[in-house]
Request: fold
Amino acid sequence: MDENMQMKAGKTYMMWVAIAVVVTSVVAFTGGYIVGTSVSSTDEGVLLVDDYGRTIRLDSIPERIVSVAPTPTEILFAVGAGDLVVGVDDYSDYPAEAANLTKVGSYTLSTEVIIGLQPDLVVSSDLVPLAQLELLEDRGIPFVILATRTLDDVMKDIRLVGILTGHVEEANELADDLEGRTGAVEAKTLADGVVKPRVYIEYYPYWTYGPGSFGNDLIALAGGINIAENTSSEYPMITSEFVIAQDPEIIVYTLGYMTTTTAEEIASRPGWDGISAVSSESIYSMDDNLVSRYGPRIVDGLEQLAALLHPELFE
Reply:
């Protein structure tokens, strides 16, 4: 399920109010302050200014990083900075190298374990309670929060992590490639005349993606109409009657940490035999991590979802 959900178990998903500290400007400096968005050597540092007016100054490129959420972990490794990562949260299991690193907790971080790893930077998502991170800051460990909400944010965060770690070229190449792949999908799914099917994505029984969520955006980019796009929250729990009334033409269920749903179980739900997706056997599974972790693999998820919704366009 969603990193929003893996680190939460249900937003338990919604029990935390996410405090977004979005990094909005980055400048590299050597001695003084030189405006720019690149780092050319580990002798340089980085100055970050976030939406709360917090200024984070690193005197040099970090050599020991702790990541406390799966998304930044995946980004760090994807840009080639995995060798700098010395600890990760309990849910960071990709790539395989990350799964073998020292675990530092999740929502409740193990402050002493993190301090013992002697990091010079902690990288987090905005799902980790700010108070937890401020405890580290009080001990002299700076932190940066990646508040990823859209595909554009993914690209921004990839480039940002490249700057933070001195892997600018690798990060730019990765972001450019992902942007190209995203554009290739959109060119097909958003073209004139493409019929958009009604779609229901279930990441946990009767939990789905609502307006403002990443999942909602993915459905739209993949060329579908989210049956929950007009509900009242980003991650609503809906009823069986709601799904029946909306009559999705395609149902996608995700498989992850806490989900054991099967197509057979969905098809056998009372009253669902009349749903278009059930009668046409258009019930599919996807790896939850490909639609819920807002890092480089989200584009894999977009491509897979688009192919499920429009197989005729991706033969």
Notes: Residues 6-42 have pLDDT under 50 and may be disordered.
